[in-house]
Amino acid sequence: MKIETREEFLKFFSFLSEAQESKLERGMERVQLEGGQWMVAHAAHRCEGDVCCIHNPTDHHMREWPQHWRDDAGKMERICPHGIGHPDPDDMTFQLSGIGVEKRWIGIHGCDGCCSPSKEDFCECGHCDMTDQELERGCFVPKED
């Protein structure tokens, strides 16, 4: 969809606002993610007692990094200090658990190695060595020539 005029923009923005309101009417709620981004998500009581990247994240090594919801891909990322978006470990667990939609590709990302809890999982240049753990997480860094 190409938006060329102010009128088209306002119409599209109105459509998005109506979609957000529809979600709120169905029992979802506005939440502010770690890092400041706002989104509409399931209500907190829906995941009470369970791990949830929004309401009850685990104490993983990326826990303090800002969250970023990728609406285009339906996944949560954590932004490392270098500005790279890495899959949120709790969201990946959910996505691959069978509770969410099974889509292994969801973990593929430009990786600088920060998402590995141990730098030993990476080669000396910082690129993924594509161990089984890396393949499971979906890390992908093109090797330099």
Automatic annotation (TrEMBL):
Record-given protein name: Uncharacterized protein
